[in-house]
Amino acid sequence: DPVFSKRTSPFSLPIRLFENFYRNGIFIFGGGQVLVPLMFTEFVQMKQYLHASGFLSGFALQQVLPGPTFSFTSYIGALSMKNFGYGIGGQILGGIVAVIGINLPGLILVLFIVPFWDDLKKIARIKYSLSGINAVSVGFIIAAFILLVIPIRLDILAIGILLATFLLLNFTKVSPTLLVIAGILFAYLI
Q: Do 164 and 83 lie in a common domain?
């Protein structure tokens, strides 16, 4: 891919990654699932640091593993570096830069805003703003669902698999991990 071959300085991509993840970390409100459509738009559609298939594969794997969605950022950082020709050291750096960038705004918030939070949320404008922000967070989660469904080809087989997975998860005690592994194996067979 010509997009993946553009590199000006060995430090430019890690710096851009940090800035991108830091900015995404600032806008997170409502949990890590809100992060998914933002990262998809930023890293796949706009910046083209990675392909949709790589993003979706990593997100599916992250859903099986324990831990917050923020851990998915290390995968995106590492894969972005790999796609631009960096070796294993650069990929590790990309993962670290991504995790620091996405978590730093929250750390700053905890250290400097939380001590005043009880007083701040009593201010009418802030109180009403938080209600609006919560509503927007729900919209982001719906957007995440739509962005993740769009690349799926919706033929009878895909709809059948989707319905079967939904029924198995909601009405049996089948492990979600087992279903994801079965899905991966099934994808290689078809």
A: no
